[in-house]
Amino acid sequence: MIPRLTQSPQVSPAVERYIHALNESGFTGDTTTRYGDRLTLATDNSIYQLLPQAIVFPRSTAM
């Protein structure tokens, strides 16, 4: 049986600070900590349903 996701949509303050610092440092891409986005990626047809604290979508790769 697939484990049930936790009902805890809160994001830790450390993750919030990290995402803020990432966006302030010139990161090009998108970030989100919205519960709906996190829930969608936690249930992406894999057997590992782990709710992420944040999602980072880089626009480019490092050179």
In percent terms, what proportion of residues is strand? Answer: 5-15%
SSE arrangement, N to C: HEHE
Q: How many domains make up the 3D coordinates? A: 1
Instruction: Look at the structure and give the mean pLDDT.
Output: 85
| Number of strand segments | 2
Rg calc: 13 Å
Strand order of the largest sheet: 1-2
How many DSSP helices? 2
Helix content: 25-40%
Let me know the largest β-sheet: 2 strands, antiparallel
Spans of at least 5 consecutive residues whose pLDDT stays below 50 are none
Outline, from the CA principal axes? globular
Terminus-to-terminus distance: 42 Å
Which structural class is indicated by helix and strand composition? Answer: alpha+beta
Describe it.
This protein has 63 residues and is an alpha+beta fold. The protein has one domain. Helices cover 32% and strands 13% of the residues. It is built from 2 helices and 2 strands. A two-stranded antiparallel ribbon has the order 1-2. The termini are far apart. The model has no long low-confidence stretch (mean pLDDT 85).
In terms of topology, how is this protein built?
Layout: H1 13-24, E1 29-32, H2 35-42, E2 55-58
Identify the notable features of this structure and list them briefly.
32% helix; 63 residues; single chain; alpha+beta; 2 helices; 2 strands
